[in-house]
Write a structure and sequence with these properties.
Number of helices: 11
Distance between the termini: 26 Å
Number of domains: 3
Radius of gyration: 22 Å
Largest sheet: 7 strands, mixed
CATH topology of the largest domain: D-Maltodextrin-Binding Protein, domain 2
Order of helices and strands: HHHEEHEHEHEHEEEHEHEEEHEH
Strand content: 15-25%
CATH architecture of the largest domain: 3-Layer(aba) Sandwich
Length: about 325
């Protein structure tokens, strides 16, 4: 017997035991069916017992499954009581990077609808690298961003769920020649100097993604610049420098600027939901569910064929959750 059993495995078992259907159980838990099956198999290995008889037509409990079910329900009820006493009493601190209708903010709004009894407080760290240390220290609970761009030492203490492949874009002065185009081919940026957060220690994962995108295309990465806070100040600095800025297609509108999608190929910015390993909170479950729901509804994890994304990011974003 293992020294301890992860309650998540018991929750997967109970859902299948009550539904007697893996697809319905996965939908109930807002997880992929592959991930649910993996958790059930892991529980069976840890207990050294077969819990279900699976055929192409039905799922039934084995005698060992019948024996485990009341114990599992009691354990989960005790965990729910504990969460009600402590977990749900504390607000969940969610870093959405910046204000505006970006991916993270949309997931947060949907999670609030799914879990109205729990408090989810927004924070604005402006980058996953900057948020990672706060996550590990417990000053933040959840953030969003390019998980593959974090140092492996940081990733070892964090968990992630793929959320979206965001199409990248370029923010241009409205009188820039390329602003007349509905879409900007990457090749058209050759010879340009483009700002991508260099100098901001909190967004190193974004700057490194830009560095890989620009390499071999004749696009220069703008030198480090002090961090600019606030839309008004950002617009003022951009107007003064007249420098294109690497962004994503959902970037908020800026006065005096034109946002244009990048194409040929379509560069993608990978976004994951990231949290501290071991964190248990019902509002975190709501965030995971909201992210999975939006990803399915809007095909966020179905990138176009003509795409650009680093191999390490594609591997991370392809992992089942």
């Amino acid at each position: 017997m293992p020294p301890a059993i992860d309650p998540r495995l018991l929750r997967a078992f109970v859902a299948v035991a009550e539904e007697l259907h893996f697809t319905r159980a996965a939908a109930r838990l807002y997880v992929a069916q592959q991930a649910l099956s993996r958790d059930v198999r892991r529980l069976e290995r840890e207990l050294g017992a077969e819990l279900f008889v699976r055929t192409t037509r039905q799922v039934t409990l084995t005698p060992d499954g019948e024996r485990l079910l009341p114990h599992a329900r009691r354990v989960l009820a005790a965990q729910d009581d504990l969460l009600a006493a402590f977990g749900s009493a504390r607000p969940l601190l969610v870093d959405v990077n910046s204000e505006g209708p970006l991916t993270a903010h949309r997931v947060l709004l949907r999670a609030r609808e799914l879990a109205p009894a729990h408090e989810l407080l927004a924070r604005y760290e402006h980058g996953l690298t900057g948020a990672a240390a706060a996550l590990l220290a417990g000053r933040l609970d959840v953030s969003f961003g390019r998980y593959a761009g974090l140092d492996p030492a940081l990733r070892s203490g964090l968990a992630q769920q793929p959320v979206r492949h965001e199409q990248m874009a370029v923010l241009l002065p409205e009188d820039h020649p390329l602003a007349a185009l509905p879409e900007v081919p990457l090749g058209a940026l050759a010879g340009e100097t483009v700002y991508a957060g260099a100098g901001n220690p909190g967004t190193r994962e974004w700057t490194e993604l830009a560095r890989q995108l620009f390499e071999g295309r004749g696009i220069r990465l703008a030198p480090p610049h002090p961090v600019v806070l606030g839309a008004e100040e950002f617009a003022r600095v951009m107007a003064a420098s007249r420098m294109p800025v690497l962004a994503v297609v959902d970037f908020p509108a800026m006065p005096g600027a034109a946002l244009r999608p990048l194409v040929d190929p379509v560069p993608l910015s990978p976004v994951s939901l990231v949290w501290r390993k071991g964190l248990v909170h019902p509002a975190l479950d709501a965030l995971k569910a909201a992210a999975a729901e939006l990803a399915r509804a809007e095909r966020w994890l179905s990138p176009p064929g003509d795409r650009w994304i680093p191999a390490m990011d594609l591997e991370v974003m392809s992992r089942p959750f």
